[in-house]
Structure formats: structure tokens, C-alpha cells
């Protein structure tokens, strides 16, 4: 092959390479392509659920492993008048509503929750951004609250609604959802204490969710209500959470 | 490589089987997407740590700042989309890699072409010198991979890639529960993240050397052999 033809082919290859990369960026912005990429999420969830025992515990650490100061991410202080009024009074007038597909809707105060069975665990919090921090959490197993409320058999997901508006509006308030496998996991707790002290506002006071086998964004802070549902398609953007509605995976096991 | 028979200079022979060619190019696409989307994910928190967590009081071991947009996928800061690309093509890489390893063993490609024969190990020093002088085998010798090439391929396929995937899985808070403490065995979750990045850097370095060697040992002949399978034995050097 002649040198000229070789140079021509090399140039074609370089152009094609550049076009492919530019094409990848364009594909990300189409309607039809991201769903193809997203199909991997269901495969990941099924395989991870298949290989990990249902009640396999996340690693628990010792006091020596605690991060000196547990990092606050996302909202550090909800910009919501109702929330700030509750915080002002030390959350004495705060209640957690438990409703939806339950036999017995509940309205639990912080004192009610503290009187229930508790679990303390030193676990690692893995943020989707890549960092990890280790903290000691104390709270009520979600399973205990669900038992009290008597979940109806149709319920497939637990939806958590939070006090913090992400973009200043009522509709932008943070929310999350998990399925019943994670809801009944022994380390899934509604935490009211961090490192032996009442949960600070920066970390989700007065109550936050811990789902130890998933990434940090699943662990909703500033909990206001819990709703048992059959489907979350009609809630928010329909994808099961604030960040999920913005393209993040509903199953955040990796 | 299919066979040494008829490996006479100037003659075309089938060097790579169809299966190897297909899996090679699937792997190229997967690796390019994984490296670029991996850098996108890295950019969400561009620092590496050693240990169980990022906040131990010790600080990062390496914090280079964000990689430029032209080398990330997508080109703008967009973690959610970077993760979508990464986890889709991670499956492509794993399925393709398992298929390749199974094929290499079942077809004896591994034993025949990749694992250095006993007498070859002794030729390593000479091969190193030859490589540094950019001297490459010709004639019948060029029909086989040289010893350094074999070692590089075996190390990358059976060492670096499995480690890379394992360290990727080690970052999963779910798979962490599989065998208690397995992630801590590698130094902890943040160490595993650092090792994942390091293994990725080794793959990039391997690819750079690989493409360099392909280019200087007859780019067109090499490329044709990985597309059509046909490779022309380079003529013997003049004595």
C-alpha cells in the first residue's frame, strides 16, 4: 500500500474516532439511547440480589474507625419555614406520619421512636460521588415501625418524604423509596442519633434513613412521613426519588 | 493465532480467529467507554485515599483535581450519565472477558499462543534489549508472539483485568456484604477505589504500548490481521 493511501486511512481513522466520541456525547442527550444504558441497572440489581443473602449484613466497624466529623452532604439546613420552626423547638412538635398501604396509620413523636426497640451500628456511608465516611447510628429498625403499622400485602415500596426543598419549592422536596427487601433488612433503621448524640441538623435531624447496602443518596434526611405504596410511578418524576428523577439509579447497590 | 504452518515470508495466513477478532474489538469499545466514563465518575470527587473511609484525619494520598472534559464521557460534568455508560459497558467488558478466557482455554489458544514455552523464559533479557532497540522478529519467528508480548497479554488478561473488575465490585456497598471483610482485606473501601483507578491506569499504559508496537511493526499488516484475520509474514532481515 502506498504511503499516501496509508496517511489517508490514518486520517479517516482519526476522524472516525473523533466522530464516535462526539457521537457518544450526542447519544447521552437523545430520548432513545439512555434507556438502553439504563437496562444494565435491572441486571445489576437482579444479580446483586441473587448472590447476596437477603439479610447479609453490611460491615460494622469499631469506635476507632469513626470519622472525626461525619461529613454533611446535600442539604445542610433545610430552607423551609415549617422545618425551621420545628427545629427551633427541639423537634418537640415534630411527628413522623406513617401511612399509605397500612392497616394502622401512625403518628410518632421523637419520644415514641426513642421508646421503641433500637439498634446501634457503626457503618460506612458511601457517597455516589466516591467518598466514604464512618459513623455510629442509633435508631429504630424500620421493620419495627412497619410491624406496628401493619403493612398490607399489596405494599411493594416504602416512600420517604423529607422536609428539605432542593430547589426552594414544595415540589422539589427530597424524597426516596426502597423496596421491601431493604425495608425489612436488619440494618435498615430510622436513625435519631449520630455518634451518641442527637442527630445534628446538618446530618438530617431529627430523623434520617439508613440503608446500609446502598449509596448515600438513598438515605433520606429530615424525614417527615413514610408511605407504603404499590408503585411510585405517580410520585414526583415517577422514578422513585429526587436524584432518580434526575437520572441516578433507583437501585444504588454500586 | 491459527497455525504456524505455511508461515513463510510474504505469505498471508490466518493469524487471528474470528472469535478473537470480534472479542478484541468489543473490548476496545468497552475499554474506551469505561476509561472515559470512569474519569467522569472520578471527577465527582477527584481525590484518592487509602483505608476504609475518606475521612480518617489523614487526608487524600492523591488529589489531582478534575480531568478535562475532552477525555471524559459525557464531556460535561454529568455524574449520573457517566455512571449509566460505565455500568452498561462494565457488563459488556465482563461478559466479553469471560467469553474470551473460556475460549482461550477451550480452544487451546492460551496454551498454544499465549503462555510462554519453557525455553522462552530464558530469552526474556534478549527480548527486552530487542524491544528497546525496536528490533522485531521477522520470518517464521514473526508468526508467533514474542515472549514479552506473551507475558504482557497474559498479565493484562488474567491479572490486571480481573483485579480491575474485582476492585470495581469492591466499591459496591451491596457486594461488600458477600464475604464479611473481603473489601477490608484489600485495605478498605477507599483503598479498593484507589486500586481500581490504578488498575485502570495500567490498562491505559498497556494500550499505549500496544498501539505503539502495532504502529511500528507494520501498522497496516497488524490492523488487517485483527480485522480480516490475515497476516503477512514479514520477510527475513538481510544478514
Summarize the structure.
The complex is a heterodimer of chains A (254) and B (239). Chain A is α+β, with helices and mostly antiparallel strands and 254 residues long.
List strands and helices in order, with pairings.
The complex is a heterodimer of chains A (254) and B (239).
Chain A: H1 3-28, H2 33-51, H3 81-88, E1 95-100, E2 106-109, H4 110-115, E3 119-126, E4 132-141, H5 142-149, E5 157-165, E6 173-179, H6 180-183, E7 189-194, E8 197-198, E9 208-210, E10 223-229
Parallel strand pairs in A: 1-10
Antiparallel strand pairs in A: 1-2, 3-4, 4-7, 5-6, 5-10, 7-8, 7-9
Chain B: E1 12-14, H1 18-43, H2 79-106, H3 109-114, H4 124-132, H5 147-170, H6 182-185, H7 189-216, H8 219-227, E2 230-232
Antiparallel strand pairs in B: 1-2
Helix pairs in contact in B: 1-2, 2-5, 5-7
Any overview of this molecule?
The complex is a heterodimer of chains A (254) and B (239). Chain A has helices at residues 3-28, 33-51, 81-88, 110-115, 142-149, 180-183; strands spanning 95-100, 106-109, 119-126, 132-141, 157-165, 173-179, 189-194, 197-198, 208-210, 223-229. The termini of chain A are far apart. Chain A is α+β, with helices and mostly antiparallel strands and 254 residues long. Chain A has six helices and ten strands. In chain B, 56% of the residues lie in helices and 3% in strands. Chain B has a domain at 18-121 and 140-201: Fumarate Reductase Cytochrome B subunit (Up-down Bundle). The longest helix of chain B has 28 residues, at 79-106. The model of chain B has no long low-confidence stretch (mean pLDDT 94). In chain B, α1 (18-43) runs antiparallel to α2, α2 (79-106) packs across α5 (147-170) and α5 runs antiparallel to α7. With 239 residues, chain B is mostly helical. Chains A and B meet through α1, α2 and β4 of A and α1, α2 and α7 of B.
Amino acid at each position: 500500500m502506498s504511503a499516501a493511501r496509508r496517511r489517508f486511512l490514518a486520517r479517516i481513522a482519526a476522524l472516525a474516532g473523533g466522530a464516535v466520541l462526539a457521537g457518544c456525547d450526542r447519544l447521552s442527550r437523545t430520548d432513545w439511547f439512555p434507556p438502553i444504558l439504563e437496562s444494565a441497572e435491572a441486571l445489576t440489581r437482579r444479580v446483586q440480589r441473587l448472590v447476596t443473602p437477603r439479610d447479609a449484613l453490611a460491615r460494622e466497624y469499631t469506635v476507632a474507625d469513626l470519622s472525626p466529623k461525619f461529613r454533611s452532604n446535600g442539604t445542610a439546613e433545610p430552607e423551609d419555614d415549617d422545618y425551621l420552626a420545628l427545629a427551633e423547638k427541639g423537634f418537640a412538635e415534630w411527628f413522623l406520619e406513617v401511612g399509605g398501604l397500612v392497616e394502622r396509620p401512625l403518628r410518632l413523636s421523637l419520644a415514641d421512636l426513642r421508646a421503641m426497640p433500637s439498634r446501634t451500628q457503626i457503618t460506612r456511608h458511601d457517597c455516589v460521588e466516591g467518598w466514604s465516611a464512618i459513623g455510629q447510628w442509633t435508631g429504630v429498625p424500620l421493620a419495627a415501625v412497619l410491624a406496628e403499622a401493619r403493612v398490607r400485602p399489596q405494599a411493594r415500596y416504602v416512600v420517604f418524604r423529607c422536609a428539605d426543598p432542593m430547589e426552594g419549592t414544595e415540589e422539589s422536596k427530597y424524597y426516596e423509596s426502597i423496596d421491601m427487601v431493604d425495608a425489612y433488612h436488619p440494618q435498615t433503621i430510622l436513625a435519631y442519633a449520630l455518634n451518641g448524640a442527637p442527630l445534628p441538623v446538618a446530618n438530617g435531624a431529627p430523623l434520617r434513613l439508613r440503608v446500609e447496602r446502598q449509596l448515600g443518596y438513598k438515605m433520606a434526611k429530615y424525614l417527615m412521613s413514610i408511605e407504603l405504596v404499590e408503585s411510585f410511578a405517580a410520585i414526583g418524576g415517577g422514578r422513585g426519588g429526587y436524584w432518580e428523577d434526575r437520572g441516578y439509579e433507583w437501585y444504588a447497590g454500586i | 493465532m491459527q497455525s504456524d504452518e505455511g508461515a513463510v515470508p510474504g505469505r498471508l495466513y490466518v493469524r487471528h480467529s474470528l472469535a478473537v477478532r470480534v472479542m478484541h474489538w468489543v473490548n476496545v469499545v468497552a475499554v474506551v467507554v469505561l476509561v472515559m466514563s470512569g474519569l467522569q465518575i472520578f471527577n465527582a470527587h477527584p481525590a484518592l485515599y487509602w483505608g476504609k473511609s475518606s475521612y480518617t484525619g489523614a487526608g487524600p494520598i492523591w488529589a489531582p483535581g478534575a480531568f478535562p472534559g475532552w477525555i471524559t464521557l459525557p464531556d460535561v460534568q454529568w455524574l449520573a450519565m457517566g455512571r449509566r455508560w460505565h455500568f452498561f459497558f462494565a457488563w459488556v467488558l465482563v461478559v466479553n472477558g469471560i467469553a474470551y478466557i473460556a475460549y482461550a482455554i477451550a480452544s487451546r489458544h492460551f496454551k498454544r499462543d499465549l503462555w510462554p514455552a519453557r525455553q522462552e523464559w530464558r530469552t526474556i533479557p534478549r527480548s527486552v534489549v530487542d524491544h528497546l532497540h525496536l528490533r522485531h522478529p521477522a520470518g517464521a519467528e514473526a508468526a508467533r508472539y514474542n515472549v514479552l508480548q506473551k507475558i504482557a497479554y497474559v498479565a493484562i488478561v488474567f491479572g490486571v483485568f480481573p483485579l480491575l473488575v474485582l476492585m470495581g465490585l469492591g466499591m459496591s456497598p451491596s457486594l461488600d456484604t458477600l464475604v464479611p471483610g473481603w473489601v477490608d482485606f484489600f485495605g478498605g473501601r477507599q483503598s479498593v477505589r484507589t486500586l481500581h483507578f490504578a488498575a485502570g491506569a495500567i490498562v491505559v499504559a498497556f494500550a499505549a504500548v500496544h498501539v505503539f508496537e502495532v504502529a511500528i511493526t507494520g501498522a497496516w499488516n497488524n490492523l488487517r490481521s485483527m480485522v480480516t484475520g490475515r497476516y503477512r509474514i514479514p520477510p527475513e532481515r538481510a544478514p
